[in-house]
Design goal:
By secondary structure, the chain is α+β, with helices and mostly antiparallel strands. It is 19% helix and 33% strand. It contains 2 helices and 4 strands. The chain has helices at residues 5-14, 78-84, and strands at residues 24-26, 31-42, 61-69, 72-77. The protein has a 4-stranded antiparallel β-sheet with strand order 1-2-3-4. The protein is elongated and about 45 Å long.
Length: 91
């Protein structure tokens, strides 16, 4: 999902409690991933090399959820995680 930087940072704070959940089921095998980090990251694409640089208020941000299972680490978009956990979020 696309957000402004401030909105993405608010969502990271709002859903930080997900790190306290015992596990996050993911994949066909239903591996039990532990959510370890949520972070707001800018969408990087060709526009990041634009001249002149794009103003910060026009940069698109995403919220990534990082999860681990044994030595495997994956990242998913917050929207996908909330959908899987059946948590409603109108943002």
């Amino acid at each position: 999902m696309n957000y402004s930087k401030s909105k993405a940072e608010k969502l990271v704070t709002e859903f930080d409690y997900l790190k306290s959940k015992p596990y996050f089921p993911y994949g066909k095998e239903g591996k039990e991933f532990k959510i370890t980090e949520l972070k707001a990251v800018p969408k990087l694409g060709a526009e990041s090399f634009a001249e002149p640089p794009i103003p910060e208020n026009e940069i698109i941000w995403h919220v990534l959820v990082l999860m681990t299972h044994n030595n495997e680490t994956i990242s998913k978009d917050l929207k996908d995680v909330l959908k899987t956990l059946k948590i409603d979020n109108d943002n």
